[in-house]
């Protein structure tokens, strides 16, 4: 009954199970419940936070993965990947525990859907390609479409030149409303930038997410004590990320696509 309950609802707590069993006439302690579940290969883990996927997102992700599965590696090497990220000065997001088996951390039942919001932090825009990191800049105000176009205007082409991108390089950004606004699309078209068609809610398909993780680890190790130091350290550590790290992220891109297909369109490890 314990195993059946947590398989149906991994967010069930040990306290819930103690109460359920008591109502059924059985007195069981919390350690006994933990041991029972452990024997079934289930352990209590923090629920992963992942974007909320609707059926339309799942289908778009599968379509993207299938359409690009046979693209040659050189095509991905000619992409400039971009994104924004928030870097916290201190603090951790709250966690929620779930009972799950070893490799099931990304099953929808075991994750917490997230939406984006702010706190005591700085917002960054950055880009990279297989050749190395591109520009990284701090976004000091709440970003709107006009500001986003200004960021691209001042940083995208200089990044492409510094990274020695081949003719016909492709720009990747996600489907944030600022990115997909008519004025932004028009600006990109006038500049003759090729844009990679992107499935919404797909951070696992953007290798820059791994680069953000790398940056955050490096920054945390240096323990910045204020926002000014946080910004300076972010810039320094971004510049230090080796080109080989970027190259490897892009080299293994096909694996991301096969994972999405194997996971039936749901979020995969990245």
Automatic annotation (TrEMBL):
Domain Tc1-like transposase DDE positions: 79-230
Domain of life: Eukaryota
One example of a Gene Ontology biological process annotation: DNA integration
GO molecular function: DNA binding
Name assigned to this protein: Transposase Tc1-like domain-containing protein
Provenance organism: Hucho hucho
Pfam family of the protein (one): HTH_Tnp_Tc3_2
InterPro entries reported for this sequence: RNaseH_sf, Tc1-like_DDE_dom, Transposase_5, Transposase_Tc1-like
Residue span(s) of domain Transposase Tc1-like: 1-70
Matches recorded under PANTHER family: SI:DKEY-77F5.3, TRANSPOSABLE ELEMENT-RELATED
């Amino acid at each position: 009954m314990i195993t059946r309950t947590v398989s149906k609802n991994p967010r069930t707590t040990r306290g819930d199970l103690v109460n359920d069993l008591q109502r059924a006439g059985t007195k069981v302690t919390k350690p006994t419940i933990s041991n029972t579940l452990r024997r079934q290969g289930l352990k209590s883990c923090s629920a992963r936070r992942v974007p909320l996927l609707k059926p339309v997102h799942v289908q778009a992700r599968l379509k993207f993965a299938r359409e690009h599965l046979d693209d040659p590696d050189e095509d991905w090497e000619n992409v400039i990947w971009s994104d924004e990220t928030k870097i916290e000065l201190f603090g951790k997001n709250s966690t929620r525990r779930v009972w799950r088996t070893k490799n099931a951390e990304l099953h929808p039942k075991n994750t917490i859907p997230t939406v984006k919001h702010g706190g005591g932090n700085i917002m960054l825009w950055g880009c990279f390609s297989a050749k190395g990191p591109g520009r990284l800049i701090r976004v000091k105000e709440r970003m709107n479409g006009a500001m986003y176009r200004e960021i691209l205007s001042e940083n995208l082409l200089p990044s492409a030149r510094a990274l020695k991108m081949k003719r016909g390089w492709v720009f990747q950004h996600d489907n944030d409303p600022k990115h997909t606004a008519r004025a932004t699309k028009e600006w990109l078209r006038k500049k003759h930038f090729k844009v990679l068609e992107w499935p919404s809610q797909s951070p696992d398909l953007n290798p820059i997410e791994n680069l953000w993780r790398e940056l955050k680890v490096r920054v945390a190790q240096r323990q910045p004590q204020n926002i000014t130091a946080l910004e300076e350290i972010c810039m320094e550590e971004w510049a230090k990320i080796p080109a080989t790290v970027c190259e490897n992220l892009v080299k293994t891109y096909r694996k991301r696509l096969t994972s999405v297909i194997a996971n039936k369109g749901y979020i995969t490890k990245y």
